[in-house]
Amino acid sequence: MLRVSRQSSGEPEVFYSLQGEGANIGGPSVFLRLATCNLACTWCDTKYTWDWANFDYNQEVMSLESSQIEEKILGFGCSNLVITGGEPLLQQSELVPLVASLKSRGMTFEVETNGTIAPLPELVRDIDQWNVSPKLANSGNPADRREDASALTAFRELPNAYFKFVVNAAGDVEEVCALRDRHNLPNQRIILMPQGQTPEALKLRSGWVSEACVKEGFRFSTRLHILLWGDERGR
Ligand code: SF4
After folding, report:
1. What CA–CA distance (Å, rounded) separates 97 from 84?
2. Would the pLDDT of 117 be above 70?
3. Residue with the nearest Cα to atom 8 of ligand 1?
4. Choice from 84, 87, 117 to test ligand 1 binding pocket (greatest atom count within 8 A of CB)
5. What is the mean pLDDT of the chain?
6. Domain residue spans of the chain
């Protein structure tokens, strides 16, 4: 069984859209949003997946068999699946059979993760792209919870893992550089993305964030879903 986020309609949060961030930005994809997270970012835009002080677990989460989720995903007729959360790797053992079965039907996969849990070899084998988003001090998580050296090393060794950082202020870029140096992360697989949950907030930070990318040799990503649809859930 997998714990999946539940939409207000009562349906599981499986939806068809465009990948809004990172190396595959703009790619048409089906999204599967899994519930629960091991971090608690102050600016998290999916607090309904983990913040049980402010959201009702029974309202927000549903447990589904792998076969039920597979049917739902295949119903969209799209060949790329983005597994997101919450933190999907909290349920990685349960994900292995779902991914293997969908792969046998020709699907490709991205996993979005906060980079604190090393992936299982069975998932490494089947996942096409890892969107690793280590959290900085601006997330409000203590350093010993948000930075796991062995997990980051495991992702660094995967050529299909990209490290995506949400930056809010200029000091965040220095923090990214320090983290890159501590864990030998390759510049060409580091992506900076401005923080912002409205188009205005994104635009405000895009100028200096893109300049920092040019200076350091990082990639730049915007947040397409915020530009197109604001902070609307399930888009
Ligand atoms: S790691 Fe992701 S899902 Fe978890 S609290 Fe942070 S932003 Fe939200």
Report:
1. 17
2. yes
3. 44
4. 87
5. 95
6. 2-229
